[in-house]
Structure formats: structure tokens, C-alpha cells
């Protein structure tokens, strides 16, 4: 092949590639235009009487949305469903593109800030007013509010709704607790420490937790410890990206040091850096591990797999009788700003929170506290179940105003790129508590600035 | 190129039937067609070229374009020039991921090629026995298994209660047993072992087929000159396999630098970024951090790196005799 033809070819490739790439100019800009903020409605919307098909995009492996949709169609036969399912990780990655290109009426959502910034979600203020959602306990909806400009979360207009809200805390194996003489849940952090020490010397792994792969599960005990040492307010400010917020506070440093103490004392499995969530669950159910820092989405499952053998308590405060806090988040669903049946979708969301049958499904199937007014009727739950204790914990958190979002939700990348590697390093003894918080804070600052 | 030109085809039509022989005489239209062979040639290539342009060239061009913007994948973008590239080389995390990929070359390339050579020459020696067939099949099997399945299977084998640790404990080495993929010092080598296992079969089969075309007379002559098996291997087998080794090294080095599936399934880059590789970093940047520009810049750098490494290998192993 001559040199000339070779150059001809190269030139051709460049020209062709260039021709195909250009003509579209700078990338992006196909996001919807901002809509007038939450237009007020004269009356609460309904699904009407004409046949409607609601397009929903939900998380696979969790039966709650499907059961709710079936019951809804029973009560409103003109509504049919077209449901698409994916794993949550897939939904998280695809959320912006799906909302822009193939807008569903209802969609399971990750953290909303990036979606609001690109005008992909419908502003629900109008619906909130029409249905009276704004008279519910404010903490239920706080995490789904965004201030104008899409920077700070936790205040401003409402952009999503929950099907219920989950509660986290500490599960414990009652049989193992009996063995070490723990007759009631620890009331202070010191008592919790004491129980762990007893378990360790009895040859029982004190804490069942996961910390492998890209999901650093030690963030659960860490945030619980943060809430034991300090008030939840500053932690929420940090998660909501309020200007000037920092995670590197003296209280959080105490918490991180406490976690390091647990690690050094050998309270976690030796291979915790290789344990994923599913492995943790199966080991705990098999009876390996006294405590497990997790959420009430497992209470139904644990009631079924270990009936009567599992208890639940909120993270105890540092001082006896102190206020308690817990990570608590709504099972977030949003309506695309381009949705065809937005009114019907909003009506469904309101129905989930207010219809007695729907609330019952929410508790029995979802295992978590339903959304809705504080005085709404609660479904009956058998008393000795984990579900009963997680629901009771929800009431205590509401009383103490102790609901926190998860520190992993502060930015889109903070969990996989900061908390997880840093906590894995802490386990391996390659990171100090001081440097851990500094490093997460500096990642946070650059991510908030970059977004 | 020895393909007959249209003119020589016409000339040869006297001795055999050819397309030109049917008409016998050149029509004016055909003569005109003959004068524009390049145009006709492009027509034949066009379908393949179009597919190549749309699915290979266009994405590459777009990636290069995106790499110069700051863009979240949806909203408006802003021009960033070469800022993203500067960041790729100055951010210690991104640079460390490139370093990890280079370390993986040892496992993905060196082990399969060296071990593959040894295995292939052993199999060749027992070529007639049934054992050779079994060995070939067993070794090639990992190539047939999807990488994701291989990753899952290996993460079971390497888990703290997995087969590897059970065997170690059984032979009295319980002290070294650990969660291989969850330990900072062993995670990257463990991922490397999975890659070596996958690529060993490919290299063995490639080298084996290369060996089959070596003239047996060469070995005979060497043996007459008193060469032992080792001498034969060094003086005849290896030099004759220059091109096959070149292909093996190229393919495996690219697999190491562009690794994604095995790492994603077995460690997801953990623990603490110990197994982070550029392929995974690009994915995280684009889909979790939503920094499409930065992800594209890293992708372009990775592409350049692969070319930079692959070209010298090609040049070194080129058969200069032909």
C-alpha cells in the first residue's frame, strides 16, 4: 500500500468522523425548559373515568409498588398499569436520561437534586396544596424539597413523594442477646459498648455489617454514632448542601473515633471489607452476629425468616434519656415533567398515603411507616414482631425531631467515591478518623462545586 | 496484491471463461466503468464503512468532543478546553487507576503468555494422546464463559469461606487464609489471577495453532545436531511463534489496560480504590458523578495509552522476513 493511499484513508476517516460528530454543536441542552413553579389547581385532580394507562418505572425485588398498583386498579378500574422494573443501581444511573427521553408518569427516584436542576421532575407544590400534603408532618417531605436554583435540598418546592418512609436503627438477635445476659435493648452508648464487649468475649461477632465492593456499609453505624454524639441538624445541613456546611466537626470526629475503636476491638467480621449486603443478611439470619445496623425495609423479611427472634432498637444516645436520631428516608417516587398522566399519578400518590387499605399494604408488604397526616389511622400489627418495634421507633423519632437523610446521599458520588473507600481504609488501618473526615469533606466541596 | 486487474482478466479470457468472455467485446459503458474502478470499489466498501463510521468513528469523535466540555449528560454544557485532561493527569485518584491497569499487565499478559508457551509445547509433545484434547478443551473453556460469570465464580472461590481458603486450611496454611478480594494487599493480584485464568486458554490455543505450522524438519535437524527439548524450544519454537506471541501480548495487554467486567463484578474497584482501573473510573465518572466531559477525557487518554503500548508490540513482533 502506498504512503499516499494510506494518508487518503486517514484523511477520509477524520473527515467522516468529524462530519458525523459536528452539526450537533455543544452537547446537551435537550432537557425540558423550566416550568412555572407548581401551578395552583382549583380542585384536587383525579384519574377521571376514561381509561388511563399509567407508565411506571420501579425498583425490582420490592413487591410494594406492584401490590399497591393492583389494589389501586381494583378500586379505580379505569386505570391500567404499564410497569417497567430495574435494579436501583440501574435506575440511579439512567434516571436523567429516562426522564428526558421516555418520561414515565411515576418513577422510583434516587436523590432528586440533579434531576430538579435539569427540570426533569414535575413541581408538586400545586398537588400538595390541593391534596393538603402541606399539613402533614414537615419532616416527611423535607428530603424531597429543593430550593430555587436546585442547589440546596430540604427547603423550597416539593419535587417527589414517598410511598412510605423507612427507619434505620439496630437489629439484634434475641437468642444471642440472651446468651450474654442482655435482657433489654441498651439505653446508652456505654451499655451498647458493654454488650458488644460481652459478646466478643463470648465468641460471638458483635456486629454484622457489610463494607465490601462499592457499598461501604460501615456508614450506617458511623452515622448512628454521629447522631449519638451530636444533634442531627448539622448532619442534615451537610447532606442538603447548605452553604458552609461541614462533616468535619468535633462531634463527628468523636463518632469516627468510636467506630475505629469498634474496628480495632474486632467487633466486625474479619473479612468485612469483602462482605456485601446480601452476604451480611444471610449470615445474620444464620445467627452470625449479635447486632446489625440496618433499616426497617428488612423487618418484614426478618419477621418471616426468624420469627420472634429479632429485636430492634434505635441507636441509644450518649447520655441516658438523651434525644435520639435515625436515618429515615421516604421511598421516593416522582412524576416526570413530561408525564402524560401527571394528575392521575399525583392522585395515586395521595391515595397511597390516605386510603386505609393502601396504608395497610404499605405496612404489611413494605414494612415501613406510611406517609400521611400524623393522626391517620395506623394498621394493626402483631406486637412481638420487628415491624411493630420499627413502627414504634418511627413515632419516637418524630417526637425527638430526629430524622436524618443518609450521609451517602449528600452528592451523587459521595458514597461510591468517598465514604466507601475511606471506610474500607479505616477498617484496614490505612486511614485515621481525622484524615477520613477531612478527605470526605474535601471531596464533598469539590463535588458540590463541580455539579 | 495479486488480484487480476480487469485488463488481465480480459487477456486471460482466451484460456478460460470469465465475465469478460461472455460479451467478448468491450461495450462503451463497460469501458467507462473500467476507467472508474476506485468509485466502484468504494461502493462495495460502503455498507461496511457506513456501519464502521456510525458505530466506531462517530462515538470516538463524539468522545473527543465531549472531553472538551463540562457536561452532566443532560443539561447545557460549557466549554472547558483541555481542563479535563489536565485534571486526569493531576488528580492522584485518576492517575492511580492508570497505574493499577499497568500493574494488571503482569497478570493479564506475562503469566498467560509465558505459561501458555509452556503448556502449548507440552500439549504438542503429547499431541496424539487423548489427554491433549482434554487439556486443550479444559484450558479453552474460560474463554467461552462470560466474563461476568467468571467474576462471580471467582469471587466465591476467593471469599473468606471459599474453596481457596478451604484448601489452604486443609493443607495447614490456614494462617494465610483471608478474604482475598477484600484485603488491600491482595485484592489487585487476586483480580489479576482471574484475568490470567481467563486469558491463559486463549494464548495456549493461539500458540498451539502456531506451533502446528512449524516445519517438523526443523526439529528433526535440531535433534540431529544434538539439541535437547529446551534448546529446541528456545531456538525453534519461540522464534517461529514471533507473530503469535505478538498477537497474544497485544490482545492481553489491551485486556489489562481496558479491563472492566472482571473488576466490576469481583471488587467494584474496592477496597478503598485498591483495584480501581480506568475502565471502571470512566463508568463511575459518567454514570454516578455525571461528569461526562471528564469521563470522556479519561477515555481518550486510555485509548491513546492502549495505542501507545500496542504499536511498539506490533512493531517488535512483526515478521521481517516476509
Task: Describe this structure in a few short sentences.
Chain A is 44% helix and 13% strand. With 451 residues, chain A is of the alpha/beta class.
Could you please describe the fold and organization of this structure?
- The complex is a heterodimer of chains A (451) and B (322).
- Chain A is an alpha/beta fold and 451 residues long.
- Chain A folds into two domains: 172 residues, D-Maltodextrin-Binding Protein, domain 2 (3-Layer(aba) Sandwich); 211 residues, Periplasmic binding protein-like II (D-Maltodextrin-Binding Protein, domain 2), CATH 3.40.190.10.
- Chain A is 44% helix and 13% strand.
- In chain A, α17 runs antiparallel to α18.
- Chain A is globular and about 65 Å long.
- Chain B is mainly α and 322 residues long.
- Chain B has two domains: 62 residues, no CATH class; 226 residues, MetI-like (MetI-like fold).
- Chain B is 71% helix and 1% strand.
- Chain B is built from 16 helices and two strands.
- Chain B has a two-stranded antiparallel sheet.
- The radius of gyration of chain B is 26 Å and the shape is globular.
- Chain B starts with 5 loop residues before the first helix and ends in a 6-residue tail after the last helix.
- The chains are: A alpha/beta (451), B mainly alpha (322).
- Chains A and B meet through α1, α3 and α17 of A and α4 and β1 of B.
Amino acid at each position: 500500500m502506498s504512503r499516499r493511499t494510506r494518508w487518503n484513508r486517514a484523511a477520509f476517516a477524520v473527515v467522516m468522523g468529524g462530519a458525523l460528530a459536528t452539526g450537533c454543536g455543544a452537547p446537551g441542552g435537550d432537557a425540558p425548559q423550566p416550568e412555572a413553579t407548581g401551578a395552583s389547581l382549583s380542585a384536587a385532580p383525579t384519574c377521571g373515568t376514561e381509561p388511563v394507562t399509567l407508565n411506571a418505572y420501579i425498583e425490582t425485588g420490592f413487591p410494594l409498588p406492584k401490590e399497591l398498583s393492583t389494589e389501586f386498579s381494583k378500586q379505580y378500574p379505569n386505570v391500567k398499569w404499564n410497569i417497567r422494573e430495574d435494579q436501583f443501581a440501574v435506575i440511579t444511573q439512567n434516571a436523567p436520561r429516562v426522564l428526558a427521553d421516555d418520561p414515565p408518569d411515576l418513577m422510583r427516584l434516587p436523590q432528586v437534586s440533579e434531576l430538579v436542576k435539569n427540570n426533569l421532575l414535575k413541581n408538586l407544590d400545586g398537588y400538595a396544596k390541593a391534596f393538603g400534603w402541606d399539613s402533614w408532618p414537615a419532616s416527611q417531605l423535607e428530603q424531597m424539597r429543593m430550593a430555587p436554583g436546585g442547589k440546596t435540598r430540604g427547603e423550597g418546592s416539593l419535587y417527589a413523594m414517598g410511598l412510605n418512609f423507612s427507619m434505620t436503627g439496630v437489629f439484634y438477635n434475641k437468642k444471642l442477646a440472651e446468651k450474654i445476659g442482655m435482657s433489654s435493648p441498651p439505653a446508652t452508648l456505654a451499655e451498647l459498648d458493654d454488650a458488644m464487649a460481652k459478646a466478643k468475649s463470648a465468641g460471638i461477632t458483635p456486629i454484622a455489617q457489610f463494607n465490601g465492593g462499592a457499598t461501604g456499609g460501615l456508614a450506617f453505624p458511623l452515622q448512628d454514632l454521629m447522631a449519638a454524639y451530636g444533634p442531627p441538624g448539622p448532619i442534615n445541613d451537610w447532606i442538603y448542601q447548605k452553604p458552609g456546611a461541614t462533616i468535619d466537626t468535633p462531634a463527628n470526629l468523636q463518632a469516627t473515633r468510636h467506630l475505629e475503636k469498634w474496628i480495632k476491638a474486632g467487633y466486625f467480621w474479619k473479612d468485612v471489607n469483602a462482605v456485601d449486603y446480601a452476604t451480611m443478611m444471610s449470615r445474620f439470619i444464620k445467627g452470625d452476629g449479635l447486632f446489625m445496623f440496618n433499616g426497617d425495609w428488612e423487618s418484614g423479611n426478618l419477621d418471616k425468616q426468624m420469627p420472634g427472634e429479632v429485636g430492634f432498637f434505635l441507636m441509644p444516645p450518649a447520655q441516658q434519656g438523651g434525644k435520639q436520631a435515625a436515618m429515615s428516608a421516604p421511598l421516593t417516587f416522582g412524576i416526570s415533567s413530561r408525564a402524560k398522566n401527571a394528575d392521575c399519578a399525583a392522585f395515586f400518590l395521595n391515595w397511597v398515603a390516605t386510603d386505609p387499605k393502601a396504608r395497610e399494604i404499605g405496612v404489611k408488604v413494605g414494612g415501613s411507616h406510611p406517609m400521611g397526616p400524623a393522626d391517620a389511622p395506623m394498621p394493626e400489627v402483631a406486637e412481638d414482631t420487628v415491624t411493630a418495634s420499627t413502627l414504634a421507633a418511627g413515632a419516637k423519632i418524630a417526637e425527638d425531631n430526629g430524622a436524618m437523610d443518609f450521609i451517602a446521599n449528600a452528592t451523587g458520588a459521595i458514597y461510591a467515591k468517598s465514604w466507601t473507600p475511606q471506610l474500607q481504609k479505616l477498617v484496614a488501618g490505612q486511614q485515621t478518623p481525622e484524615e477520613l473526615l477531612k478527605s470526605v469533606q474535601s471531596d464533598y466541596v469539590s463535588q458540590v462545586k463541580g455539579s | 496484491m495479486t488480484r487480476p486487474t480487469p485488463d488481465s482478466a480480459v487477456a486471460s479470457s482466451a484460456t478460460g471463461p470469465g465475465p469478460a468472455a461472455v460479451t467478448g467485446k468491450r461495450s462503451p459503458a463497460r469501458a467507462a466503468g473500467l476507467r472508474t474502478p476506485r468509485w466502484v470499489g468504494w461502493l462495495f466498501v460502503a455498507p461496511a464503512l457506513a456501519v464502521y463510521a456510525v458505530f466506531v468513528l462517530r462515538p470516538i469523535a463524539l468522545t473527543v468532543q465531549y472531553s472538551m466540555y463540562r457536561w452532566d449528560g443532560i443539561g447545557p454544557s460549557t466549554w472547558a478546553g483541555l481542563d479535563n485532561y489536565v485534571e486526569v493527569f493531576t488528580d492522584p485518584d485518576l492517575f492511580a487507576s492508570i497505574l493499577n491497569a499497568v500493574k494488571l499487565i503482569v497478570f493479564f499478559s506475562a503469566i498467560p503468555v509465558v505459561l501458555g508457551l509452556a503448556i502449548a509445547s507440552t500439549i504438542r509433545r503429547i499431541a496424539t494422546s487423548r489427554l491433549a484434547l482434554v487439556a486443550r478443551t479444559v484450558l479453552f473453556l474460560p474463554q467461552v464463559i462470560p466474563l461476568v460469570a467468571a467474576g462471580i465464580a471467582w469471587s466465591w472461590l476467593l471469599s473468606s469461606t471459599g474453596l481457596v481458603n478451604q484448601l489452604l486450611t486443609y493443607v495447614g496454611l490456614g494462617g494465610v487464609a483471608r478474604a482475598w478480594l477484600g484485603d488491600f494487599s491482595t485484592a489487585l493480584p487476586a483480580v489479576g489471577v482471574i484475568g490470567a485464568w481467563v486469558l491463559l486458554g486463549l494464548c495456549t490455543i493461539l500458540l498451539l495453532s502456531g506451533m502446528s505450522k512449524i516445519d517438523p524438519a526443523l526439529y528433526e535437524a535440531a535433534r540431529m545436531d544434538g539439541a535437547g527439548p529446551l534448546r529446541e524450544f528456545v531456538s525453534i519454537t519461540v522464534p517461529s511463534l514471533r507473530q503469535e506471541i505478538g498477537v497474544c501480548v497485544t490482545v492481553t495487554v489491551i485486556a489489562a489496560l481496558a479491563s472492566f467486567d472482571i473488576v466490576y463484578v469481583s471488587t467494584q474497584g474496592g477496597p478503598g480504590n485498591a483495584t480501581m482501573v480506568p475502565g471502571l473510573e470512566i463508568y463511575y465518572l459518567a454514570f454516578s458523578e455525571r461528569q461526562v466531559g471528564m469521563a470522556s477525557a479519561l477515555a481518550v487518554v486510555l485509548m491513546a495509552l492502549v495505542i501507545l503500548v500496542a504499536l511498539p508490540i506490533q512493531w517488535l513482533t512483526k515478521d521481517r522476513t516476509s
